[in-house]
Every structure is written in C-alpha cells, then in structure tokens.
Design a protein that fits this description.
Blueprint (H helix, E strand, L loop, with lengths): L5 H15 L29 H11 L3 H15 L5 H8 L7 H6 L4 H11 L5 H7 L1
Helix pairs in contact: 1-2, 1-6, 3-4, 3-6
Length: 132
C-alpha cells in the first residue's frame, strides 16, 4: 500500500493546484505596477516563481519510496493503470529521474493525484477543511 501519508499527498495536491493555475507569462515587464496590470502577474509562471519552488521542494524532500508513490498515484488517477500494485511496480522504473521536473511537466497533476488517492479510498477533503 502507500508508503506516503495521504496528508502529505494532500499538501502536494494543494501546491500543485496553485501551480496548475499558472499560465505562460504574457507580460514583457513583470515588474510594472500590478494594479495597472490587473494583478495578472500573479498567475504567470516565471522561472523564479515561489509556487514552482515550493512544489519542487516538497517533491524533492520526499524519500525515494514516497516519490514513487506520487508517480504511481498520478498514473493511477490519470487512468494509465487500474491496479495500484502494477502502477507502483512500474513507477520503480523511474528511479533516477528528476522527479520534480517530471511531475511538474504533467498537466492536471493535482487532479490526477486526488483521483489516485480516491481510488485507494482516501480523500483530501478533510485535510483541506483544516488548512484553507
């Protein structure tokens, strides 16, 4: 079963949601007056964005087994696998990859992680109620 706690997955889900909301920057000068730009820079994905750094750090700080669980949950939630054991076994083949880069490159990461957790009988709803 999971080697990572559902609460830890839910923390990553919350950070991934903030990341998923980001869009490619369309402002040539992100240092201009935010009020004049209708606060659009907040949703733009710049290289030094703290949301990206926080999500990457959260993933990097996990031990190797927990990182593999995150990948397997993502694949399970995306529908790549119907069986947790099979997804987890395949995830072991990704060892050595740059996990944050790989996971941040998956659109809808938060959605897939939540769906994968749901398939294993867990929910982020109780966690979110206590942290929002």
């Amino acid at each position: 079963m999971l080697t990572i706690s559902p609460e830890t997955v839910c923390r990553i889900v919350m950070k991934a949601r903030a990341f998923d909301a980001k869009v490619a920057p369309n402002l040539s000068d992100p240092g201009s007056n935010p009020t004049d730009d209708n606060e659009a820079a907040v949703l733009a994905d710049y290289g030094d964005d703290p949301v990206v750094q926080e999500l990457s750090s959260a993933i990097e700080d996990l031990n190797a087994d927990a990182q593999l669980d995150i990948i397997a949950l993502t694949w399970l939630g995306r529908g790549d696998f119907d069986d947790w054991a099979e997804a987890r076994e395949q995830a072991a083949d990704t060892a050595g990859r740059n996990m944050p880069d790989y996971l941040l490159g998956i659109p809808l990461l938060a959605t897939y992680l939540e769906e994968g957790l749901a398939q294993l009988g867990h929910s982020c709803q109780p966690f979110e109620q206590g942290h929002l």
